[in-house]
Amino acid sequence: MSYGFLDIAITPSVLEAQQKMGADQLWTDFEGDRPSDRFTENEAAFIADRDSFYMASVSDTGWPYVQHRGGPAGFLKVLDPQTLAFADYAGNRQYISTGNLTANDHACLFLVDYPRRARLKIYARVEIVGLTADPDLTTAVQTPGYRARLERIYKLRLAAFDWNCAQHITPRFTQAQITDAVRPLHDRLAHLEAENEALRAQLATPPAEPGQRATPAS
């Protein structure tokens, strides 16, 4: 049956390495069907939550190049079940990924959710689109209020995807995630401080003499 991602990933040299390690039967005996040529709602939601990913391309010399891409959560857009796109903003002006993908449109994306220890791998073919070539696409990939100069658009046609196991992923959290996690503690602390202040005020009030009203503390 089909297992599209490994159909691409397992080359003759990879298969030879698997055979040496006795791991080839894990995949040659695979009897399930894992369609990976279109995103489901699960992948689309995962991608929409990401604020960064890693993208690998290959140079004319055969050397791979891995680049970190970041932006507001959801900057990598799922246009349809087989198409992604993202805005390419001005950076260090080396244009290594742009040059590599102009010559060889094959790319691999690696998306990680560190708190949940989940990772998604994507093989895709990349088309570099000019800003005036497709005005609707240009509008779709931009994030309102994001302060950066847009130079081009990367449009990716899905070849295959696969989910990785959680092994060896160290959970990491953003500042916003930590703030959300500790907010109940801050709220509880504020409540206890207010309660403590009220108790201090009560203790500072002199006890009333028999038949007299207590005098509030100044």
In brief:
With 218 residues, the chain is an alpha+beta fold. The chain folds into two domains: 36-164, Electron Transport, Fmn-binding Protein, Chain A (Pnp Oxidase, Chain A); 173-204.
**Known CATH architecture of the largest domain:** Roll
C-alpha termini separation? 83 Å
Residues in helices, as a percent range: 25-40%
Strand composition percent: 25-35%
Low-confidence stretches: none
Biggest sheet: strands side by side, in what order?
A: 2-1-5-6-7-4-3
* Record field, number of beta strands: 7
Helix-strand sequence: HHHHEEEEHEEHEH
So what's the CATH class of the largest domain? Mainly Beta
The CATH superfamily of the largest domain is known as: Electron Transport, Fmn-binding Protein, Chain A
Notable characteristics:
218 residues, alpha+beta, Pnp Oxidase, Chain A, 2 domains, seven-stranded antiparallel β-sheet, 7 helices, 7 strands, 28% strand
How would you portray this structure in words?
It is built from 7 helices and 7 strands; from the N terminus they run ααααββββαββαβα. The radius of gyration is 27 Å and the shape is elongated. By secondary structure, the protein is of the alpha+beta class. The protein has 2 domains: 36-164, Roll (Pnp Oxidase, Chain A), CATH 2.30.110; 173-204. The protein has helices at 4-9, 12-20, 24-28, 41-49, 96-103, 135-141, 175-204; strands at 52-58, 64-70, 77-80, 83-89, 106-113, 118-129, 150-164. The model has no long low-confidence stretch (mean pLDDT 90). The longest helix is centred in the last third of the chain and has 30 residues, at 175-204. A hairpin with a 4-residue loop joins strand 5 (106-113) and strand 6.
